[in-house]
Amino acid sequence: MPMNAVYRGPADLPQVIPVFPLAGALLLPRGQMPLNIFEPRYLAMIDDALTDRHRLIGMIQPDQTQGHDNDHPTLFRVGCVGRITQLAESGDGRYVLQLTGIARFRVEEELSVSTPYRQCRVTFSPYAIDFKARHGEEGVDRKAVVDVLTAFLKAKKLKADWDGINNAPNEALVNALAMMSPYGVAEKQALLEALDLKTRAEILVAITEMELAKSDDSGETPLQ
């Protein structure tokens, strides 16, 4: 999705961003994530983000291996920042919005703040390649991605928009499938932290093949 703002590199983004911890939520560069915001602290976060020209929210997963403090969970060190590109008021106190991913970040420090939501000092420098659309597409084994998607859809008895899939560039295809994948926190974090698009596609294929193998072994969702 095109944005009014243009981010060419790490220097174009602020060093301090609000973060939204959400398990299982994977945002990737140029991906679109719908959000339904209803908690007061996150409504305040959206209100404050809208007053800033960047309109940024950092999506990050709680690290559930480090305890289970629901109010203040330990965070993974890597997330992805997105810009609010669509927003609607529901009429019952909620915001329905869409984030468009810009770049991944690494948390350098969580700040002590007076806001009800959390804020972190971050760096985008390790992920400078995220600012280059379609970077590394030529390295993706598209056939392997499509083959495992076909097997997954068949096993789960699901349908797909094959015209859209066949016409999607490699980056859009891999990132959309990764974001929509029904996998757990650890798998989503691995997909997020993949070195490049080629590696992300390989991880996606490997995770899906393992899931299909487990289903096949159990006899629940045979491929044949």
Oligomer: single chain
* DSSP strand content: 15-25%
Using the alpha-carbon principal axes, give the shape. Answer: globular
Computed structural class: alpha+beta
The description of the largest β-sheet is: 5 strands, mixed, barrel
What is the H/E order?
A: EEHEEEEHHHHH
Distance between the termini: 38 Å
Please report the total strand number as a whole number. 6
* Major sheet strand order: 1-3-4-5-6
The number of helical elements comes to 6
Task: Give a verbal description of the structure.
The protein is an alpha+beta fold. The protein has 2 domains: 10-131, LON domain-like (Archaeosine Trna-guanine Transglycosylase, Chain: A, domain 4, Roll), CATH 2.30.130; 137-218, no CATH class. It is 33% helix and 23% strand. A 5-stranded mixed β-barrel has the order 1-3-4-5-6. A hairpin with a 5-residue loop joins strand 4 (78-89) and strand 5 (95-110). The N and C termini lie far apart (38 Å). The mean pLDDT is 93.
SSE map:
Layout: E1 16-21, E2 32-37, H1 40-50, E3 56-60, E4 78-89, E5 95-110, E6 118-123, H2 142-156, H3 162-167, H4 170-180, H5 185-193, H6 197-218
Parallel strand pairs: 1-3
Antiparallel strand pairs: 1-6, 2-5, 3-4, 4-5, 5-6
Helix pairs in contact: 2-6, 4-6, 5-6
Short description:
The protein is an alpha+beta fold and 224 residues long. The protein has helices at residues 40-50, 142-156, 162-167, 170-180, 185-193, 197-218, and strands at 16-21, 32-37, 56-60, 78-89, 95-110, 118-123. The chain has two domains: 10-131, LON domain-like (Archaeosine Trna-guanine Transglycosylase, Chain: A, domain 4); 137-218, no CATH class.
